[in-house]
Amino acid sequence: MKEKNWLKPTLLVLCTLLVGGVAGYFISYYQNKPSAEEQKLIDEYNLLQDEWLYEEEDTQFGELAAKGLASTIASSANDPFTFYTSNSSDQGLATEGKGFGIKTHPYDGNLYVTEVYTESIAHQKGIQVGDVLTSLTSDGETYTFKDHSPSEINNRIASVENTVTFKGVRGEQELSWTMAPSEYSEDLISLLSTPSSSNGYTLGIRVNTFLGSSSLAVESIVKNYKGTAKKLVLDLRGNGGGYVSQASKMASLFVKKGTLLYRLVDKNGKTIEEGTQKSDPEYTYGSLSLIIDGGSASASEIFTLALRAGSNAVVYGDKSYGKGIAQNFKTFSDGSVLRYTSAYVYGPERENETMYDEGKDSDKVMCIHGKGILPDVPFSFHYYDYQLVADFTQSIGISENAQNFFLEILNGLDSSYPDSYSKDYHYIDAVQDYANSLSVRYNDTSYGEAFNEKGAMLKIVNDKFTKEEYDKYLEEYDRLTNEVFSA
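Predicted structure:
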């Protein structure tokens, strides 16, 4: 039997193999005798190494225990931001990659192009935002999107390695694009408008991410129009965040001296890092507007808090996501990475702060985790949920939340539907009513069947629901944009 020593100079990885899953546990290097719980795990680890029937236990234990520990701990705390990956590229933090360089959204069984990266093969071939992709052909075989689910379509596209031909439509025009996956770079920012007399000298920038060198990208644009732009609009909608450092650097371009940019606080309430504006802002505007919505999160919220407290920024739109926590990273010798939540993020309060009654305390800082940022000028329509995709085709026994979501979206599309279910009006009734309306509006009786042979929503009905809710999202998104730019 191998002699084991629990006082190893590295972290001891322990795992318990269970039917249907793996639970991983992680013991740090201690100088004193381990506790009873720690000793139990050490004994289990030694037992499995010595007597487990199968080979390669060392490599399997390390990988499975690392994954199991992160997922078990994270799920127990409802923390989706703590996880382990076998390599750094799977962390999803790169702004470069290989593929076609587009983002899409399910749309009537097809794919609506929502973004085309400037440095991508798709841009070179002429694909545009708003195009609808309907199929791809590879080695003489055509894969028609309407015959498959969104996840199946995305998996098929992700598996492409050689040249394929996409077919699609742009309005009434049928188009095709032949290309192979290539290297691409995501657009960190997008220029929405340049200053001119026709728009009141408004500079508009969409900040797509706080990854990469996004602060430098923004600075290069505002520097170019310094002295020309009188109004600045920064669109943060759908920006899920990135690095605290990028949010801090970008905020420092606009906020007054002495403004708190961010504060990281550990679980014991101790400040572990803080950023403060050290100089006067480089760029000021007569009007500074931010646009946020439910997709604005993390670093986007750090940036927003700093600007609303340290400049004349007015925040428009919908309540932000509410991610006031920060993650750290540990890269192991084999290249695998553990991302883990390590701190709460605090931002500055405004003078006479009214949001969540924060101004009633004396600390002058706040954390919006689990709450989100309330805009100064709320948009009249809660549109963000209209870009969410729900698959109702698998089972009639979908969750109550999903059923309520369906009725909520229907009400936004047509206020004639009941706003709640009752003993006389159930989810099934709502689906049938919607299917009947599709039959009339599209003059197609096949919609009226409503349900498939399993008793779940018919796919063509679900596809049309996805299209109509996304059309509503785009309509309201554009209306909000126009409201802010004309304010």
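Summary: Residues 1-31 have pLDDT under 50 and may be disordered.
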